[in-house]
Amino acid sequence: MSENISYREALRMAIREAMLEDERVFLMGEDVGHYGGAYAVSMGLLKEFGAQRIIDTPLCESAFTGAGIGAALNGMRPIVEIMTANFSLLALDQIINNAASLLHMSGGQFNVPLVIRMASGGGKQLGAQHSHSFEGWFAHIPGLKILTPATVQDAYDMLHLALADPDPVLIFENALLYNSKGALETQKKALPIGKAFQHRSGKDLSIFTYGISLFKALEAAETLSAEGIDAEVIDLRSLRPLDDEAIMASVAKTHRVLIVDEGWRSGSISAEIMARINEQAFFELDAPMRRVCTEEVPLPYSQHLEQAAIPQSEKIVDMARTLME
Amino acid sequence: MYLDLNRGREFYKKMLLIRRFEERCVELYSHEKIRGFLHLYIGEEAIAVGIMQALGAEDAVLATYREHGHALARGISANKVMAELYGKAEGASRGRGGSMHIFDAKSRFYGGSAIVGANLPLAVGMALSDKMMQRKRVTVCFFGDGAVAEGEFHESINLTALWQLPVLFVCENNLYGMGTALTISHSETNLARKAAAYRVHSQQVDGMDVLKVAQAAEEAVQRIHSAGGPVFLECLSYRFRAHSMYDAELYREKAEVEEWKTKDPLVLLQKRLETMGLWEETNAQGLEDEVSQIVNEAVDFAEKGTLEPIEDLMKFVYTPKEKQ
């Protein structure tokens, strides 16, 4: 069965299915119930499942994220929604000191099957406290899994994959993707966590990316194609674990690397990928690796400045040309 | 609470075990058998012992980084606790946690948290799930006076009151958050009043008197079972030893420490038993001998314990495939 639905609807469908299938699943966060979700993902779910399972919390990111951890420890399968990735910083203590560490600190006794979803990324003119991309930063933390669904299919699949996982999984939903539409197969077996997906095969260079930048990379690849440059585009899907195998296989094929990352470049996931290629596939490279990242500035409000700060397909095209010189 | 010989002996022995266990820990620390931070509970034994005796096996416990006493009082063997302090694979947390992170799934003991206040949100979630699944359980969360200044305390206590969750908050007010006195940390030093402001049933308890703590704990557990909502107990107490092994105790007067030592929970209980004419029958020396044997065995067990192979270093970061 294939449907053309929105990313938002795919998420809602997955949450709904999971709640129907498993009484241990519940959704908790700010404005997820009566408001319907800041990005309307959970619209209608309160009416269907009631306030016991669609829980509106006060503004207390640390406590409700920690409550999600406590519920997970006590046998539940909570989904915690954090309105915006920037707000997750208020819950960093719980995410890192508890969720990511409890299994290890307890010598393997207590795993934390928690799913945290949050809206991420710039481009909506929301300024420096609602627009940042911290997925690469969270990917630094052992004990966490970091997913970045770009497609409607992945929005749906990854929610199910995350709930089936015994350990804490953070899902970064780029807020500009909620309205995007795409095909959804609900009966297909999902590509597992930790597997990248090749969206476009090419022989001249590999573009590694994730989240909304996937579509910018695909657009860039079309432009490059008209110039006779054949770009391979790989959606990383998961930033922790990273699919080293898929990355190195593509490097061995194209010998040129361009990474597109909506995070800031210093200490970023793009830097990590470069380091891994350096360690594992250095002699495959025909040119220095390149990347397009967000400029190192807190994201500004003004549209022209914000757009200049975040990755764009034109920047990707320019960087690809440089790489091919 | 009615005190009889059995109860007197039980409480005395449990408190004595914590006391002697930790005194031995100090020796072992100076012999470098135990490293890292070692926070002693000596002086506060009445709280852990009084609270734990009110709990059932199905109830859950979340403790602080000063939790040897909580672990022992909850019934985790001295062997497992000592082996953990030795960093041995036979330790409660396989040597991954150490003094501050003792865990035990069997007794539903969820640590050992060394981020002050960070165990409170976990208690909210544990109690929330018990309520959702209609399980008649209590989650007990220990924390110090220092934690009450943390945002996580206020966020969590609000949620438990708002959602009427079965949490027993046990604030061990020992008057100092590390080396900073209560009076220079809190605008309101009656911490039970802060909890009451969230419409949580709250009271101050003499935390040096094991009978008073035990009675308050039993009433609290009953209240949680009947009324459903949380209870906050502020146990007024004092730590006789330094904050950790690195603390020169510049922030408090020796006279103050000595004054509190006159309220030693072991001495208090002894006096009560003496008044009742039960002290002789308590056979304190017999209990000393029993406790001494438990501690000796624990040291022996820890000494003989094994170190996890370095090849296993990366274990327990993620759940292994075979367990999924």
Tell me what you see in this structure:
The complex is a heterodimer of chains A (325) and B (324). With 325 residues, chain A is an alpha/beta fold. Chain A has 2 domains: 2-185, Rossmann fold, CATH 3.40.50.970; 197-324, Rossmann fold (3-Layer(aba) Sandwich). In chain A, 37% of the residues lie in helices and 21% in strands. Chain A is built from 12 helices and 14 strands. The model of chain B has no long low-confidence stretch (mean pLDDT 96). Chain B has helices spanning 5-30, 45-52, 68-74, 78-85, 119-132, 151-162, 191-197, 210-227, 254-261, 265-275, 279-282, 284-304; strands at residues 60-63, 109-112, 139-144, 167-173, 176-177, 180-181, 201-206, 231-236. A 6-stranded parallel sheet of chain B has the order 2-1-3-4-8-7, sandwiched between helices. The termini of chain B are far apart. At the A-B interface, helix 3, helix 4 and helix 5 of A face strand 2, helix 5 and helix 6 of B.
Offer a few descriptive terms.
heterodimer, A: alpha/beta, Rossmann fold, 2 domains, B: 324 residues, alpha/beta, six-stranded parallel sheet, two-stranded antiparallel ribbon
Q: Short summary of the structure?
A:
The complex is a heterodimer of chains A (325) and B (324). Chain A is α/β, with parallel strands linked by helices and 325 residues long.
Separation of the first and last Cα atoms of chain B:
47 Å
Task: Specify the CATH class of chain B.
Answer: Alpha Beta
Beta-strand proportion of chain A:
15-25%
- The percent of residues in helical segments of chain A reads 25-40%
Mean pLDDT of chain A: 97
Tally of individual helices of chain A: 12
Number of self-contained structural domains of chain A: 2
Q: Which structural class should the secondary elements of chain B be placed in?
A: alpha/beta
Note the beta-strand portion of chain B: 5-15%
* Largest sheet properties of chain B: 6 strands, parallel
Which homologous superfamily in CATH is the superfamily of chain B?
Thiamin diphosphate (ThDP)-binding fold, Pyr/PP domains
- What's the CATH H-level homologous superfamily of the largest domain in chain A? Thiamin diphosphate (ThDP)-binding fold, Pyr/PP domains
CATH topology of chain B: Rossmann fold
Low confidence ranges of chain A: none
CA gyration radius of chain A, whole angstroms:
19 Å
Unreliable segments of 5+ consecutive residues of chain B: none
